[in-house]
Amino acid sequence: MKKRAFMTTFEPINNGFNSVFKVNHLSVGLVVPIENYGHSTVPTMQLHLERVKLIDRLGFKALWLRDVPLHVPTFGDAGQTYDPFTYLGYLAGSTSKIALGTASIALPLHHPLHVAKSAATIDQLSNGRLILGVASGDRPQEYPGMGIDFENRGDNFRAAFEYIRSAQENFPTFSNHFGTLNGQSDILPKPKGTKIPMLLTGYSRQSLEWNAENSDGWMNYPSNFQQQAYTIAEWRDIISKTQKFNKPFMQPLYVVLNKDDNFKPQMIQLGFKIGMNYLIEYLNQIREIGVNHVAINLRFNSRDMETTLNQLAEKLLPHFHKT
Q1: Cβ-based neighbours of 193, under 8 Å, separated by 6 or more
Q2: What digits encode the pLDDT tens for the residues 252-293?
């Protein structure tokens, strides 16, 4: 009986988290920028706000944007190019329902007091729609620009995570190498909900046990069904033994949507060239192994973007967003 109760409950945290994550359900979000820039590392950001407003109206559950302090062409793309917290503040005032997610803030590259204050500000301005994905950061070229040791990013990630958690308390008392909170001052505002939901990205150089105990959920990369099912089951087994609530699992997915709904999947890095019917089938399969949310990235999608978004909303979302 206790195991059944555990398996059917995620901790209620804020409006965004509660809307996106439901046990035994899968929801769908999109990675910003919503444009094709497969032949460049830098997006144009044209029509970025119009498309964000569109996916809010169409009923996608979340948008996700990245933390890329420095553009490193040899490593990958520049994400949405805008500072994540500044941009989230702009999007908070331009949307009404969609959850606002980071995937993810590289904690060692920021002072945790600033992250805590920025995150709580976005959460308040959006009426509790922030989901804070956090990571240790994996671009060694960015660290010299901050004067930070890349090799210590695991320890710095953990220290920053703990600082942010403490900062959400009233007049917190806390100390580590980032600084001391002595209980004589407070960090405002506080989150809209019970706390800022913080999802670990990958392993962030932490153990699975630390992840299960401290995170509010897990963002990890796609892998084959057998490996993904094993990984999720192992993590949730640890959670069931130590935590009061179950915790959600989400993954990104690159999608190149073919106009033929019956186009069979062709693998690309972290995703597929795929027809709608096979995409629906794939999402149903990963829902069965415990994936609760998929963040679709349309960077390489070659079809008209507005047509693609409307077709996803019309044909795919009804299979997953029933409540």
Answers
A1: 12, 13, 14, 15, 17, 123, 128
A2: 999 999 999 999 999 999 999 999 999 999 999 999 999 999
Question: Could you count the other beta carbons within 10 Å of the beta carbon of residue 304?
Answer: 11
H-state helical runs in the chain: 2-7, 15-20, 48-58, 84-92, 112-125, 143-146, 153-167, 208-214, 225-242, 276-288, 305-311
Cα–Cα dist 81/43, whole Å: 8
- pLDDT at residue 3, rounded to an integer: 43
Angle (nearest 5°) at CA 172 between 169 and 177: 120
Q: Identify whether the C-beta of residue 35 lies closer than 8 Å to the C-beta of residue 44.
A: yes
**Model confidence pLDDT, tens digit, residues 106-132:** 999 999 999 999 999 999 999 999 999
pTM for the structure as a whole? 0.96
Q: Which domain holds residue 90?
A: 2-319
- How many structural domains are present in the chain? 1
- Return the CATH number at 298: 3.20.20.30
CA–CA separation, 156 vs 178, rounded Å? 9
Instruction: Tell me how far the alpha carbon of residue 186 is from its chain's centroid.
Output: 28
Q: Would you call 27 helix, strand, or coil by DSSP?
A: strand
